[in-house]
Amino acid sequence: MRILYINICSINAYLGHKLFDVEWCKNLSEIGLVDLVQPSKGWYSNIPPNINIITFEAEKHVKHERFFKSAIVNFGRLHRLEPYRHACNAAILNFVKELDKKNHYDLIISAHFDIIVQFFCHPGKKLLNKMYLIEHLPPLYMSRPLKALYDFNKNNINHITMERKSVQILQDKVGIRSDRIYYVPHPVNEISINTNIKCDSYYDIIGLSNSNSDILIHQIIQYEEQNNYFMRKGIRVLIRSHDIEYDNGYLKVFKGRLNLSYDEFYTYIIKAKLMLILFPLSFGFQTSGTIIDALSFRVISIGTKFDTYTSYCEDYPNACISFEGIDELISSIEMNLDKKNQDSFDDFDRFYENRTGNSMRGYLEQLIRIHK
């Protein structure tokens, strides 16, 4: 069994998915020989020796580079389409075709896929038939023009969803045939890091996702200014925002990136007592790596009632706590800040059992059996 794993998109789209890619390839390597394509040397770390790394720097293989960077195709609204980025992605797709001719892959797993390139540089039905796109449920949130391009090939390619309830969503709301949809749960994030590194400080509660709602963050800041809750309780909180900055010594809100190293970022998670998932309800059924991080590192999370998180609350009610409104959020923090009991331990254990070892292998083997 030969398997190719690749991201057919710009680097920025999967910059934060390095661990995700590695965990997928580890599981795939249990059932076949895996080739993992990286955009530059050293992009991935801690790769098992049985996974073959292939480096492909797309920018060095773009045809007509000057044209795609010229003012002719970057004029006015065309600039928003980022023509050069799509030209790079087209180079990646052509590389996939070349690799497949050489290695005759049984499966091609694409963690991300450029829909515009897929339409204009059609790879052919034979290649699409053995290609599996890992869906993060973007079809529900695409613009009409992009959705039209997506619809053109949606039933010629296979789709993997990591949320069980999304299977029906993809059928009913996106119009994908049931025989083109496969459920494989998001793998556990298993990492090896140096937790003895020195950071300036750690926090009791963190919410580091770039999907956090600034509206909700503003409400949390207002509550703190009126009640000094975190200051009085001595609770240190760190939240990521799009446009808000705030710091009273206990509640810190920052925008942009913290510029943490890989080890520092995951040490923040491991040392946290709670994780906040402050997503807008419009996040819907999209897959969230933040939820997986919390469950993988056995940190109780408190989040809004968007569809994906509600599903996890049903499956792991003592590890995932939902709230509605600031008063309910504060109450949930009070109840769960120092809570570690057998019920939450059982939830974390079940999460691991469902998404590691033989369980994950079973999902992937079933996918292969159906494909054959």
The CA-CA distance between the termini, in Å, is: 11 Å
Please, what is the CATH homologous superfamily of the largest domain?
Glycogen Phosphorylase B
CATH architecture of the largest domain: 3-Layer(aba) Sandwich
Strand percentage: 15-25%
Question: What is the β-strand count?
Answer: 14
Q: Give the uncertain stretches in residue-range form.
A: none
Largest sheet: 7 strands, parallel
Helix and strand sequence:
EHEEHHEHHEHEHEEHHEEEHEHEHEHHH
The average pLDDT is 89
Domain tally: 2
Strand order of the largest sheet: 3-2-1-4-5-6-7
Calculate Rg over CA atoms.
22 Å
What does this structure look like?
The protein has 372 residues and is an alpha/beta fold. It folds into two domains: 2-187 and 356-371, Rossmann fold (3-Layer(aba) Sandwich); 205-354, Glycogen Phosphorylase B (Rossmann fold). The chain has 15 helices and 14 strands. The chain has helices at 18-28, 65-69, 83-103, 115-120, 125-129, 144-153, 166-174, 214-227, 229-233, 262-271, 289-296, 307-315, 326-336, 342-355, 357-371, and strands at residues 2-8, 33-38, 51-55, 107-113, 131-135, 158-161, 181-183, 205-207, 237-241, 246-247, 251-255, 274-277, 300-303, 320-322. The strands form two sheets. The chain has a seven-stranded parallel β-sheet with strand order 3-2-1-4-5-6-7, sandwiched between helices. The chain has a seven-stranded mixed β-sheet with strand order 10-11-9-8-12-13-14, with helices on both faces. Strand 1 (2-8), helix 1 (18-28) and strand 2 form a beta-alpha-beta unit. The radius of gyration is 22 Å and the shape is globular. The termini are close together.
